[in-house]
Structure formats: structure tokens, C-alpha cells
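Continuing the series of single-chain predictions for the mutant panel. This is the parent chain; the variants come on the following pages.
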Amino acid sequence: GCCSVSRKAKPTPSCPFHGLPIEYLCLEDDCLVCVKCLPSPIHNGHRCKCIPEALADENRMISADLLQEGR
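Parent structure:
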């Protein structure tokens, strides 16, 4: 028979302060934060995006830059 190798999912990075999963990007400080960091005095009132949305925005900007350069 064939042997199967189990694939382990990559662990989700955890917040060093709260131990929760890192799910957001603070656009003001350009750092990754968890849900408990958002209302903290350090990030309160800052513009934040969930990581998938921030990555999609970054990819759109890179694509637009490449189109402008003619690549």
C-alpha cells in the first residue's frame, strides 16, 4: 500500500500580549494585532483592516503599479 504523510496546518500566529490569534493589521502603526489589541490605548481609534482584506488591497496596488510600468 501507499503511505500517507499527514500535513500539519501552519499554526496561526498569536498575539504576544493576549495569546489570541493575530487577525488584523493596524494601518497607523503598520503592525499585526489581535481583536483585544484593537480597543487598547495603543491602537484605539486607529484604522485597522482584517489581514485578508489588507493583503487584497496590497495586491491591487502592486498590480496597478506594474501596469503603470508596462509590465
